[in-house]
Write a structure and sequence with these properties.
The complex is a heterodimer of chains A (321) and B (254).
Chain A lengths: L1 H16 L4 H21 L4 H5 L7 H9 L12 H21 L3 H18 L6 H13 L10 H9 L6 H29 L3 H5 L2 H7 L7 H7 L2 H21 L3 H22 L2 H11 L5 H16 L9 H4 L1
Helix pairs in contact in A: 2-5, 2-15, 5-6, 6-7, 7-15, 9-13, 11-12, 13-14, 14-15
Chain B lengths: L1 H11 L1 H36 L10 H12 L13 E13 L4 E3 L3 E2 L5 H6 L7 H15 L1 H10 L13 H12 L1 H4 L6 E14 L3 H4 L8 H8 L12 E2 L3 H9 L2
Antiparallel strand pairs in B: 1-2, 1-3, 1-4, 4-5
Helix pairs in contact in B: 1-2, 2-3, 5-7
Classes of the chains: A mainly alpha (321), B alpha+beta (254).
Chain lengths: 321, 254
């Protein structure tokens, strides 16, 4: 054990120095940014009532509420009607900049601040998905999420900029580790609390979850709730997947299983329970799990699939000779 | 590998030997600091998420102070058991006239009126009881006069005195209180308005009731559940909301 620790201690700096997870983090940046842009657009017509100074939650009441927890919220600033509007559209602009990957870390920090403020300003908005998004965005402030698929990356390649500083790369890797651990915590604790409940042990919990009017918005949910076998299968597979999630990440092949099953699981939650935003945040968060090598392998696999069935070109007479 | 590279550099230039050694030290210090930060953060998250117990008792307040402001989280979705009932919420307004008479509006099924809105707009970020807000907001936004009235009323609204009610019901009550102008017709003879709320809580059909073949095995569980009453939440069928009458009377009594 001591030998292993010493080896790890020796290799840890070198391991941190190599930039990892750049593709996953960049894809997650686009995903998170798109989700928040959609939120701004969906709430556009109700923005004054949801987030404004004289909205559902009046500013004095809201300020009294946040004083106990965290005293900073941009949307609680006494800016008046024009200021509220300005803030809303600035937030939308920052979200668009973040999505396309423009202006690097300052925009990442501004985006985290604006999103945190927006979601917390209207308590009715808050659910597990938005909570996870706000936490992930804090971690994303320390990642190089603009390394790929971004305007910044395009500009860097055009200018021929040098790679980032070693300390920046090391911080990026540490932040991504925290993102992945955070995701594991979500799943493990979700399973941990579920297994203590009688309906989850009996395999009937899905029936009760789908019986809540809040989560029975689709005809499919009634269909699933009416089949005891589907209910039991759904309940037990949820428990199995959530408790197995961190262990699946330990093996390179099983990571794909974690992502595929996780994505299917959240697509089903979106369809059956109407939790589209929560599902979107969870699916996007899972993009971080796969390493750059994994994404390269997926890319090669897609290329092979595309090439499959195509008739190879006949050799020219010169080549045949 | 690091030792090898240092040796090679050392052989090539005695001056550069100092620089990589310093770099290595800085690198190691940074990596140690980052490792420490990761370990501390993850430990705090674990302590915060675990139930209060022997393992977490001594460190929980530290974890709470660290996690609560920015990293607050709770991942017990539908655990340990999903909810066992649906709440049906009805509201009605009592309008006091200046001539001393009182009029009542009909009971409004606050949550079922707006259900079609949810079906039409599944992309809305609000959960279903919050969908009610959303649907109402659409109504209000379409009517600028009502929106203006709501905005005038809002700063004077009093907090709801109904601490036993679930949070979402309290939120709904506050909203309905704010929305009184939308549902009542005000004129010069309106002296004030009360809002009353009725919540009917209906437990779900038990799994064993739905699937009879399952019943024999779970009679015990069934009998335990079937004693759950179907209550009206407070008093009779009405929960009066304090502070509403004065607020609206002030606004509209002229």
């Amino acid at each position: 054990v001591i030998g292993g620790f010493l080896r790890w201690f020796d290799q840890w700096p070198q391991w941190l120095l190599q930039e990892r997870w750049t593709v996953g983090v960049s894809l997650a940046r686009i995903g998170f940014g798109s989700i928040v842009v959609c939120l701004y657009l969906v709430c556009m017509t109700q923005r004054a009532l949801l987030f404004g100074s004289h909205g559902i939650e009046s500013q004095p009441a809201y300020r009294a509420f946040i004083e106990s927890a965290w005293g900073l919220n941009l949307f609680a600033l006494p800016l008046g009607r024009v200021g509220d509007e300005l803030l809303y559209f600035t937030g939308l602009l920052v979200a668009i900049f973040f999505t396309v990957g423009l202006l690097g870390r300052p925009v990442s920090i501004a985006f985290a601040l604006f999103t945190w403020s927006l979601v917390h300003r209207c308590p009715g908005l808050m659910d597990g998905g938005w909570r996870l998004l706000c936490i992930m965005l804090v971690y994303f402030c320390f990642t190089n999420c603009n390394r790929r698929f971004s305007v910044d990356a395009w500009l860097r390649s055009k200018r021929g900029d040098p790679p980032p500083l070693e300390a920046v790369t090391m911080t990026h890797n540490a932040a991504v580790i925290i993102c992945i651990v955070q995701l594991c915590i979500v799943y493990v604790f979700s399973a941990f609390y579920k297994v203590q409940g009688e309906p989850w042990q009996q395999g009937t919990a899905l029936f009760y979850a789908l019986s809540e009017r809040e989560f029975s918005i689709s005809p499919l949910s009634a269909m699933v709730a009416s089949s005891p076998h589907l209910v039991a299968l759904g309940t037990y597979s949820t428990l199995l997947f959530q408790s197995a999630f961190p262990w699946l990440l330990l093996h390179s092949r099983l990571r794909y299983v974690a992502v595929i099953v996780g994505t299917s699981f959240h697509v089903m939650i979106a369809i059956l329970m109407g939790l589209q935003w929560f599902s979107a945040v969870m699916i996007v968060s899972e993009l971080v799990i796969l390493t750059d090598a994994d994404y390269d392998a997926i890319h090669r696999f897609v290329d092979r699939v595309k090439a499959y069935g195509k008739v190879p070109a006949l050799p020219t007479p010169a080549e045949a000779r | 590998m690091m030792m090898q590279s240092a040796a090679v550099i050392g052989e090539t230039s005695p001056v550069s030997q100092v620089e990589p050694a310093r770099c290595r030290l800085v690198r190691r210090l940074i990596s140690l600091a980052l490792g420490g930060v990761v370990a501390f953060h993850v430990t705090m998250l674990l302590i915060f998420n675990l139930p209060f117990g022997p393992l977490t008792a001594e460190t929980w307040s530290l974890a709470n102070r660290y996690v609560q402001p920015i990293f607050f989280q709770q991942w017990n979705f539908f655990a340990p058991a999903p909810g066992g009932w649906n709440d049906f919420t009805f509201v009605r307004y009592r309008v006091h006239r200046t001539d001393g008479t009182v009029r009542y509006t009909k009971w409004l099924a606050a949550d079922s009126i707006f259900r079609p809105e949810l079906q039409r707009n599944p992309l809305t970020p609000l959960a279903i009881d919050r969908q009610i807000y959303f649907a109402l907001m659409n109504v209000i936004d379409n009517d600028q006069a009502d929106l203006a009235a709501l905005r005038r009323l809002k700063p004077q609204a009093q907090p709801l005195q109904a601490t036993q009610l679930p949070d979402d019901v309290v939120q709904l009550a506050r909203l309905m209180m704010s929305l009184a102008p939308t549902f009542c017709f005000y004129d010069s003879k309106t002296a004030g308005v009360d809002v009353s709320m009725s919540i009917q809580r209906v437990p779900f059909e038990h799994f064993a009731e739905r699937f009879h073949y399952f019943k024999a095995k779970h009679d015990a569980a069934l009998s335990a559940r079937s004693v759950v009453p179907v209550p009206w939440i407070a008093g009779e069928d009405v929960v009066p909301l304090s502070g509403v009458s004065g607020c609206i009377a002030t606004e509209f009594s002229s």
